[in-house]
């Protein structure tokens, strides 16, 4: 592809897709037809600074083209770059960064088949082979093997995307070869997705704080949400004032639920105290960790709770604009959140005067496009701003210079929805749940060799065994993966591990984002580890050498020893340890720092290659 402005022209459909997002171009600088009677048209870049300030619309623009056409041609990319005055070389780098985009011609329909851990254990390889055999050249469907689709409780999973106006999506999970093929070839006849409540085995339990409304409230109805206590927390926030909200959250002991466990109140206070303005709020809903799907269930089953929680957080930190970065593989969650935000805006719960309190706040959804690294907060900021989703070096930290270089508070979905019960029940009552160091309830994504997979809510301090008993763990349990691909394995005789941040740390593992994946003896562990290594190799952004090279070397070594044990594998295991230490010590972000964790734990705790 020519990386300069060239002679390639967009088709009418491609031009329409971009113009639907950006509006019609005003001058030939932006791609409008040249006016031969105007000599100033090519000398004056009308709105040049304003156009450059719209760089953050690059990702939505790429989505607009990809949604309408199915791929991004040179002419379409060139036109989008003219509209936004973005150098084509940079836009090409962004377009090729994401797995859901293509800069090469492909059919209008793409069938994504999940090959990650839960789906691999549920027969993903057979599903892929069968679908590829049925949907060969000439079928009008491109089959792509995909990382985790976030449907682990219904593994194996398939997602079909058919380009057009509008774009159409359909999900089949659990998928067979027949349902996957039918979903791709006739999305309208695909089976309807089950309601979100079916992913909550504890539904109806009155003790649930975070999942209590899932299944009990119509997720499309704002009135139903308010009838079940919705927006009571925001009203109390206005009574307390921003400083009072931060004090309440701090006193509750709430820490981040994405894995880092940083105190939420401290983060909010640090953001609120920054003299630089404007401040921003970012909700990270790009849960791409294999085995994680709790945020999807909340957004599909209780979307207004997230809207309310984001509004409270924004009020506390002094932000008037919030961004919800939502992974592109969640079409139903996107539709539910778009509807909830629209209804809240129409009813005065978002906008210039929230609840008549003189506080202005609104939320914009930004759709991801398939990049695990964008779950890292600074990579997410780069993605929103229209750059490649590569992590930034820290310091400065996001509370000082985050999104658009301004003070930013970033939290994931589960962390934010915890703020609602903190304010409704009070910090003291909330802190009494769990343990002194890990307060409140925690959501766990349970999948694999269990009878009742789904999202579970338990107070911190429950043991792994208690959780697996609720989920109906099957006989022959061999190992449990905690924290997803970036986490670690524990043995079947270690189920007394307390599920707290400090308890898992003392046990030599991690709680991470709450992934609990059980594997029995039918799952070949070496192949599972190889899949984890392939995942990190594919998802490394390549910015730093330790991760870019280390993930490749890790995968190569695991390929060599996949079917070997004992002395035959010893040299490669020693190499794996050396590479793993280098990645952990020298990688820029958490991806490289944790890429060795699961493999290390499998070797040391499970004797994977003995």
Automatic annotation (TrEMBL):
Q: Does the keyword Ribosomal protein apply?
A: no
Q: Does the keyword Iron apply?
A: yes
Q: Which UniProt keywords apply?
A: 4Fe-4S, Iron, Iron-sulfur, Metal-binding
Q: Where is the NADH-ubiquinone oxidoreductase 51kDa subunit iron-sulphur binding domain?
A: 526-573
Gene3D superfamilies assigned to the protein according to its UniProt record, in alphabetical order: 3.10.20.600, 6.10.250.1450, Glutaredoxin, NADH-quinone oxidoreductase subunit E, NADH-ubiquinone oxidoreductase 51kDa subunit, NADH-ubiquinone oxidoreductase 51kDa subunit, iron-sulphur binding domain
Q: Which SUPFAM superfamilies match?
A: Nqo1 FMN-binding domain-like (SSF142019), Nqo1 middle domain-like (SSF142984), Nqo1C-terminal domain-like (SSF140490), Thioredoxin-like (SSF52833)
Which InterPro entries does its entry note?
A: NADH-UbQ_OxRdtase_51kDa_CS (IPR001949), Nuo51_FMN-bd (IPR011538), Nuo51_FMN-bd_sf (IPR037225), NuoE_N (IPR041921), Nuop51_4Fe4S-bd (IPR019575), Nuop51_4Fe4S-bd_sf (IPR037207), Soluble_ligand-bd (IPR019554), Thioredoxin-like_sf (IPR036249)
Which family does the UniProt entry place this protein in? Answer: Belongs to the complex I 51 kDa subunit family.
* Record-given protein name: NADH-ubiquinone oxidoreductase-F iron-sulfur binding region domain-containing protein
- Organism of origin: Streptomyces broussonetiae
């Amino acid at each position: 592809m020519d990386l300069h402005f060239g002679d390639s022209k967009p088709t009418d459909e491609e031009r329409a897709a971009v113009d639907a997002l950006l509006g019609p171009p005003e001058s030939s600088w932006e791609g409008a037809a040249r006016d031969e009677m105007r000599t100033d048209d090519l000398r004056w870049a009308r709105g040049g600074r304003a156009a450059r300030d719209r760089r953050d619309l690059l990702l939505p623009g790429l989505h607009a083209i990809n949604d309408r056409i199915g791929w991004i041609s040179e002419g379409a990319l060139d036109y989008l770059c003219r509209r936004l005055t973005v150098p084509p070389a940079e836009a090409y780098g962004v377009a090729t960064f994401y797995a859901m985009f293509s800069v090469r011609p492909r059919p209008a329909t793409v069938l994504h088949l999940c090959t990650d851990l839960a789906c691999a254990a549920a027969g993903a390889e057979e599903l892929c082979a069968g679908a590829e055999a049925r949907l060969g050249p000439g079928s009008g469907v491109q089959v792509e093997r995909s990382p985790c689709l976030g449907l682990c409780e219904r593994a194996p999973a398939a997602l079909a995307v058919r380009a057009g106006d509008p774009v159409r999506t359909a999900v089949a999970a659990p998928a067979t070869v027949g349902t996957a093929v039918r979903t791709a070839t006739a999305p309208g006849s695909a089976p309807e997705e089950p309601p979100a409540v079916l992913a909550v085995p504890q539904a109806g339990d009155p003790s649930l704080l975070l999942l209590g409304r899932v299944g009990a409230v119509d997720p499309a109805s704002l009135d139903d949400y308010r009838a079940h206590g919705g927006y009571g927390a925001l009203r109390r926030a206005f009574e307390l004032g921003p400083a009072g909200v931060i004090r309440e959250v701090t006193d509750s002991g709430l820490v981040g639920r994405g894995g880092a466990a940083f105190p939420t109140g401290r983060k909010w206070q640090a953001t609120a105290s920054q003299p630089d303005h404007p401040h921003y709020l970012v909700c990270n809903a790009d849960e791409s960790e294999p085995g994680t799907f709790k945020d999807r269930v909340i957004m599909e089953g209780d979307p207004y709770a997230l809207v309310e929680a984001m509004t409270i957080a924004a009020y506390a930190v002094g932000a008037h604009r919030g961004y919800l970065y939502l992974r592109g593989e969640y079409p139903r969650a996107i539709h539910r959140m778009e509807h909830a935000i629209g209804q809240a805006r129409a009813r005065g719960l978002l906008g210039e005067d929230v609840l008549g309190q003189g506080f202005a706040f609104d939320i914009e959804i930004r759709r991801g496009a398939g990049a695990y690294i964008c779950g890292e907060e600074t990579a997410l900021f780069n993605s929103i701003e229209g750059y490649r989703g590569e992590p930034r070096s820290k310091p400065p930290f996001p509370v000082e210079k985050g999104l658009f270089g301004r003070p930013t508070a970033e939290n994931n979905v589960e962390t934010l929805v915890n703020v609602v019960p903190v304010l409704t029940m009070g910090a003291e009552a909330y802190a009494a749940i769990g343990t002194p160091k890990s307060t409140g309830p925690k959501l766990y994504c349970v999948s694999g060799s269990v009878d009742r997979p789904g999202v579970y809510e338990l107070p911190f301090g429950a043991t792994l065994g208690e959780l697996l008993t609720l989920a109906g763990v099957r006989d022959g349990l061999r190992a449990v993966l905690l924290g997803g691909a970036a986490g670690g394995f524990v043995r079947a005789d270690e189920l007394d591990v307390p599920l707290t941040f400090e308890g898992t740390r003392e046990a030599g593992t991690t709680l991470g984002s709450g992934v609990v994946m059980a594997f029995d003896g039918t799952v070949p562990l070496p192949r599972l580890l190889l899949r984890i290594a392939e995942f990190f190799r594919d998802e490394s952004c390549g910015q730093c050498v330790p991760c870019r090279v280390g993930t490749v070397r890790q995968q190569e070594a695991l390929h060599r020893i996949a079917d070997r044990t004992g002395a035959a594998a010893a040299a490669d295991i020693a190499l794996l340890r050396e590479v793993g230490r280098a990645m952990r010590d020298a990688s820029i972000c958490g991806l490289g720092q944790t890429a060795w964790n699961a493999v290390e734990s499998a070797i040391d705790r499970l004797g994977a290659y003995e």
